[in-house]
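User: Design a sequence. Structure:
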């Protein structure tokens, strides 16, 4: 440290006034490992695809174009609908007086639902029944 007096003469501090070096502090840097991302199970891929769900239940189900062309008005195992040009498939699980019940996926976005539908539903195209023994 230098001290300036009014005479502009520079004086050095006395040796006895020297400031000792500050103590050394040892610093340890702690690096935390980031937590791995939590793996959530993937949702059932059939929840967002009505055809995939029906195909899971009836493995011999033909491709959608053939399925649409093979529908009939008779009662069957798979109900085929047309919602504004979009086909929809549902697995028939029961029949009532003028109605039938289906299990389906993706009628409500990416969810499995059960509905009871009237046979005169305007979206109903018809039914398809797989013919192989494995179904």
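Assistant: Done.
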């Amino acid at each position: 440290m230098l001290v300036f007096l009014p005479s502009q003469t520079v004086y050095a501090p006395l040796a006895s006034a020297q400031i000792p070096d500050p103590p050394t502090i040892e610093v340890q840097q702690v690096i935390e490992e980031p937590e791995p991302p939590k793996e959530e199970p993937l949702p059932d891929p059939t929840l967002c695809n009505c055809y995939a769900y029906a195909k899971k239940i009836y493995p011999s189900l033909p491709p959608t174009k053939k399925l649409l062309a093979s529908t009939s008005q008779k009662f069957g195992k798979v109900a085929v609908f047309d919602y504004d040009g979009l086909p929809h498939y549902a697995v028939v699980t029961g029949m009532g007086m003028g109605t039938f019940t289906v299990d389906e996926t993706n009628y409500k976005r990416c969810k499995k639902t059960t509905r009871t539908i009237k046979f005169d539903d305007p979206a109903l195209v018809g039914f398809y029944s797989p013919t192989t023994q494995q179904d």
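The beta strands are 3-4, 10-11, 78-83, 86-95, 99-105, 112-118, 124-128. Helices lie at 50-57, 64-69.
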